[in-house]
Amino acid sequence: MTGAPAAPRATDVAREVARKLREARPLNATLHWSDELLDAEARRVDAMPAPGPLAAVPLALKDNIATTEQPTTCASRILEGYVSPYNATVVERLRAAGAMVACKSNMDEFAMGSSTEHSAFGRVRHPLDPARVPGGSSGGSAALVAAGAVAAALGSETGGSVRQPASFCGVVGVKPSYGRVSRWGLVAFGSSLDCISVFGRTVADAARVLSVMSGPDPLDATTVDRPPMPMPSPRADLRGVRVGLPREYFPADLDPGVRAGIERAERALRELGAELVEVSLPHSPYTVPTYYIINPAEAAANLARYDGVRYGRRRVGPEGDLRALYRATRGEGFGAEVKRRILTGTYVLSAGYYDAYYRKAQQVRALLARDFERAFAPGGVHFLLTPTTPTTAFRAGEKVDDPVQMYLADVFVCGISLVGLPALSLPVGRDAGLPIGGQLIAPPFADAALLSVAMTLERVLDGTAEVR
Fold first, then answer.
1. Which residue among 28, 75, 80, 437 is the one 20 to 30 A from 62 at the CA level?
2. Dihedral (CA of 130, 133, 137, 143) sign
3. 357-374 pLDDT, tens per residue?
4. Helix 447-460 vs helix 203-213: angle between axes, to the nearest 10 degrees?
């Protein structure tokens, strides 16, 4: 989108996108695409009677978003070859606006992971350093946008799965308010957390896609009765804007490069006229354990449907009965991280442990929400600024055998998902060539205002500059 001529011929764009997707193959960021399907998308767009707001814009979709023209596998063997009989609501809206579905992107299996090393079809490589991870679980979409293969991409956020890879790859990642975008057609992982979210090369690119796909949907009762998000514009300055810096998000052992990047963003905000104040979100230390109780509990319930009867893979064990069917299908079809979360979720929901774990986690979730309500109350701050991730992109294999260390990669993002707020990550600089992300958080349904402030900051902040 950025720098593209107005309403180009989709067939010309498709040819160029196909070339770029072939060049990007070493990243292993795509799971499904073909020249034939891309040509068909281009002919459909060129035949539209009037160009839409996303005319001929090529998009990558995370492979947990249902499409009728390409498989939807969630990067899992249990859904290998599965083709949905319907399109997700966001797919219908984006195509109606003229966008082209260029490909389905690689991901952590069922969106469970922070590095895109848990795909059944091989890990995704970071576009700047193939030895490193692009983040997860939407790492394929982030890598394709960072590599310039597509203009924008969709991912899904359950605990930060768009903002975290956006930070690692040096692109913009936007998570809308929970209920702003329909989840119809998004394969369920954590139903009270899941949000279809957007990657863009710029804030404006991501905002344009989000404005098209937002709005109420009669097929999803969790969408709110609000009109689609208007397309925001950058502000002349940020005078009158108060930005909070939550002290719990700046620990003493924060990576020095990440700290330098956020301090650079703080200086830019002050120069634009914003007021920066320290605030406290006192229950933040409980974010990760709370998330990793609620998330596996919901995952265990949602993934119970993959039993060899209704979807995808079907295997029957030697005993030949129903239990053997379940055991063989799920044992062969699910990867290690998915099994780990199903077991954890089943445990915390079991009789005798429900009150001690799941109920307690929901109570802490309410306390976390109150922290943010107090910060955004009248007389408080309008937005929050934090690091997106504790470090820059780590090396592949570095944390894959240590689930706790892997989960801590989401420490600054999963709390915002628990409370359903809008947030985004934008590049604020680089440390030794690796991107650093800064996270802006807004009150519920202040999505457009959040994007407007981010556009203003982006205009004065070179996200590719070294910070130390």
1. 437
2. negative
3. 999 999 999 999 999 999
4. 160
pTM for this prediction: 0.96
Burial of 22-45, coded b for 16+ CB within 10 Å and e otherwise, reads eebeebbbbbbbeeebbeebbeeb
Half-sphere exposure of residue 126, counting CA atoms within 13 Å on the CB side?
Answer: 25
Q: Which residue has the tokens 């939807």?
A: 72
CB atoms within 10 A of CB 147: 22
Question: Under the phi-then-psi rule, with left for phi > 0, alpha for psi from -120 to 50, and beta for the rest, what region is 434?
Answer: beta
- Token pair in block for residue 334: 């699910």
CB atoms within 10 A of CB 192: 16
Q: How many Å apart are CA 447 and CA 441, to the nearest integer?
A: 9
Q: Give the pLDDT confidence of 282-322 residue by residue, as tens digits.
A: 999 999 999 999 999 999 999 999 999 987 889 999 999 99
- Torsions phi, psi of 25, nearest 5? -55, -35
The strand pair at 152-157 and 195-200 is best described as antiparallel
Active site residues: 62, 137, 161
Pairing of strands 58-62, 152-157: parallel
CA distance 83 to 317: 25
Give residue for tokens 């319907």: 86
Number of Cβ atoms within 10 Å of the Cβ of 230: 12
Do residues 16 and 40 lie in contact, with contact meaning Cβ atoms separated by under 8 Å? Answer: no
Q: Taking a C-beta distance cutoff of 8 angstroms, is the pair 191, 297 a contact?
A: no
